[in-house]
Input
Amino acid sequence: MNRFLFVLGKNWQLSLAELDNTLKNAPQFKGRITDYSANIAIVEFEDLHTDRLYANKLMELQYILGGCQKIAEIHDFIDIQTVHFAFPLQIEKYKQVDIKRKEILKVINSSLKKVFPSIRRESLFFAVSIYPNLYDDNYYSDVLLKHFLPFLNKEIMTLLKENGAKKSLYYKYPQENIDAGNLNPIFPHHVITYGLFNRDRAEIIFGFTEEGCYIARTLTCDDPNFKKRIDEERPFKEFKSATSPKLSLIMLNFLNLFEQRERKKILDPFVGHGTILMFALIEDFQIFGSDIDETKVKNTERNISWLLNELEEEAPYMINEIIKKVDINQLSSVFNDEKFDGICTEPELGPFYKQKPYYTEVVDLIESKLNPLFKATFRESFKVLTPKGRISIIAPVIGTIDGGDVQLNVEQIANFYKFKLIPMLDLNRIVNKSNRKLQFKQGHVRAILDAKKNQIVKRKLYVFEKIDESS
Ligand SMILES: C[S@@+](CC[C@H](N)C(=O)[O-])C[C@H]1O[C@@H](n2cnc3c(N)ncnc32)[C@H](O)[C@@H]1O
Output
């Protein structure tokens, strides 16, 4: 069928934007998202699928994406009406249910022959993962989990035996989660632990959108333990202010530097403990960083040396030429010879509020501290970036007691210093959805929030491109 199912990260809007941007701009992964929900995206590639080693290519893609949990190959599709007839919220027409369930089984049976390269005389193990259109949908908790999941487990087991399997077993989810209606499909690290990429073991995904249910077999998945280890085992860390590994990877991808990464120079001028740079390093970029705080500069140098050692690569001699103590206001005078291909950074976002501050307090913070800092960032970035170089930058959105969310006008500052905003999602490339929770509006994609519920200081990701004055 040549279509692939991508399981999106928790922040699905940001994950979808990252994926669309990559499919649009990375020459080796050209393609389009043809359908999506809050959990999955369906992708058609221009020619990746014709490559004999397409599974390896998908692993490469999985490795660079920050917001993708799994990639699966689609084997079939069941339209949503058939699913709703077979598994209605309330059963009234038993005969119709029976007929439609048989139809579904036929489709599943033909998929199984593609999921498992060989069935006869094999001992097979499978895990069914259902990704609903939206998790907070009654249809997920009341029907898909309570009826569709047990149906799939039992029937797939039977079908495999009918097709000659010696043994067939399935992954059992905790019953209490099924009963409570809050089950998460099997996590990527369990997919790895259970060996579900082996010939005789598989994760079979039933991924829902408004259009229907895609049946797919997982080919590759994120290795969260690898990222976690880099993030948590490095010698120096400070989680309060650190950018997350996933967000770091997403920010790097929005720089649109997908080819010859080993030749591309990336700068983080607010390097802190170096999270963004560490992930830029594992993505093969040439890295540079600076910070006003001498201790952080030293700590980042040690973190980078530790990572190079872990990766069994040699530390560049004179690492102190790569990570420097610099106030953002002096950036271009220190890095005057370097022309960076991209800047990826999270400047100071303000204090760590334990309680929501007052509106006036935040306005004062923005005027006295954050505006000057962001102005200096864009002014200096313009000088050190190559023509059309991009900057991925986080700005704060601060919740207040008495005035709602307050933010600085990043766009205005960037425009003043000759940067144009790059919307994070190209709405011309995205199909429209009828559920309002799944719709994108022009204003929503200029920058995308990355925040947990009730977080006081939320991160907002922007991407800007340096205006090329010569053209
Ligand atoms: C939010 S932290 C960056 C966190 C980093 N991404 C990480 O994961 O560790 C912001 C950093 O900006 C630095 N900083 C604040 N003011 C600065 C200035 N004027 N020039 C350069 N760095 C500055 C702080 O020392 C701090 O390390």
In short: The two ends are 43 Å apart (CA to CA).
